[in-house]
Amino acid sequence: MLETVSLVAVDVDGTITYKEPYINLGAVKSLRSLGKRVPIALVTGNPYPIAYALTVYLRPCNEVMGIAENGAVIYIGTLEILKGDFKEMENVRKFLMKKGYYRYLSEDSKFRFVDIALRMKPEDQERLKKDLYEMGFNVKTTSSGYALHILPRGVSKGNGLLILCERLGVNCDNVVAIGDSHNDISMFSIAGLSITLPNAPEDVKKEADIVVGGPGYGYSLPLALKIIERIISP
Q: Which one, 25, 195, 216, 227, has least CB within 10 Å?
């Protein structure tokens, strides 16, 4: 168990929301309470404009900072860091258009800088993965539980968290990461303590240090935050 906590990295969809992508206000209240004592960063697969707006309006702590597009965008105040091979991602977009995959693009695609998100059935996801592999694109796929994401290799929530910690001067061993999906596993491996929720897939639970109880989704986030409160309490 950690002796101190310097930063809390919290996923958005499925972690501070209900099962549907609506913010759980009880989860936000708990975040704000903890944010008075320790910095909190939202780490999400959402587009940068949406992630930034969530940070500003939900204001989990005084600092405006976080990670968007599964690690492709890191922001600290007005500082923006974009990661990834933009030319390669443009080639992927052209391929998706040519092959008819564009109809699966998420409704927020026009706001995305790097990450490409598609909402599609599992069988269509497997077909797309096979096509991307056969085309030799230097990309990878991951799931947020709400969409399939295509990212440049080397881009992940974990690597984004590494950059954020470096810029903040924070030791990753003193970071707590909270999430519920496959795209959160990379930041679990970076953080000193990882916590997941009961709605997480079983293979995600196996990668976390702690699985909290409760109904799941945003309802269970306060239980995760109470663990952190006990660590930082004098």
A: 25
Q: Which of 11, 13, 115, 180 is catalytic?
A: 11
pLDDT digits (tens, 9 = 90+) for 27-69: 999 999 999 999 999 999 999 999 999 999 999 999 999 999 9
Residue (of 178, 232, 233) closest to 4 by Cα position: 232
Read off the pLDDT of residues 170-184 as tens digits, 9 standing for 90 and up. 999 999 999 999 999
Domains detected in the chain? 7-82+155-232 (3.40.50.1000), 86-152 (3.90.1070.10)
Query: Which of 26, 8, 57 lies closest to 218 in space, CA to CA?
Result: 26
pTM greater than 0.85: yes
Alpha-helical regions (H) of 59-120: 86-99
Catalytic annotation present for 108: no
From the list 56, 53, 58, 65, the residue with the least C-alpha distance to 9 is: 65
